[in-house]
């Protein structure tokens, strides 16, 4: 089962990321981090998406290395799309690249310098506990439960031509990269028709501009 805290990092910062996870888990905060929590022989992209969906908050181990990492950018984009709070734990005094800055501009930042990293873990634990505090219940819980029920109801999805799926995958990949193949496959298994499939895929994009552009291209391909 995925933990409450998804930890995103560049592989170059692996030692720092696992040190951070050890510190958080010693304080009772369950974490999900790759590759430790990836199921053997599982599809990596699917595991990442499922873990982000199941988590309550993301900790981004931010450095000059993660700043240049396409995988980190994809994970952050997914977290923002899922409305996951993100706490950026900065190892280096660097400014986010434009693509990351777009997603992180409204998120919470914690600097882990100039002193030794462990001296900043207490502040991170406090920030995470606040982010994980139970929220006031609302009708959204009812809608989520209804959505889950509908998503598991037995249906017979239409069969889409391979060429149609390939074209949609190409269009979506311009925005999301290789993860598009997985998302197209999942959406095709649930969609009730071609337009429903397009709308499901457009919903995976973070901005209205990206969604509009994707739908325009996707409909032109018909």
What does the model show?
53% of the residues lie in helices and 9% in strands. It has 222 residues and is an alpha/beta fold. β1, α1 (14-25) and β2 form a beta-alpha-beta unit. α4 packs parallel to α5 (98-104), α8 packs across α9 (179-188) and α8 (162-176) packs antiparallel against α11 (208-220).
Which key features would you list for this structure?
222 residues, alpha/beta, Rossmann fold, 2 domains, five-stranded parallel β-sheet, 53% helix, elongated
Task: Give the arrangement of secondary structure elements.
Layout: E1 5-8, H1 14-25, E2 31-32, H2 44-54, E3 57-62, H3 64-67, H4 70-81, E4 86-90, H5 98-104, E5 108-111, H6 121-131, H7 140-152, H8 162-176, H9 179-188, H10 194-202, H11 208-220
Parallel strand pairs: 1-2, 1-3, 3-4, 4-5
Q: Output the strand order for the largest sheet.
A: 2-1-3-4-5
Uncertain segments of ≥5 residues (pLDDT<50)? 137-155
Largest sheet: 5 strands, parallel
The DSSP helix count reads 11
Structurally, how many domains make up the residues? 2
SS-based class: alpha/beta
Query: What name is given to the CATH topology of the largest domain?
Result: Rossmann fold
Q: Please name the CATH architecture of the largest domain.
A: 3-Layer(aba) Sandwich
**The CATH class of the largest domain:** Alpha Beta
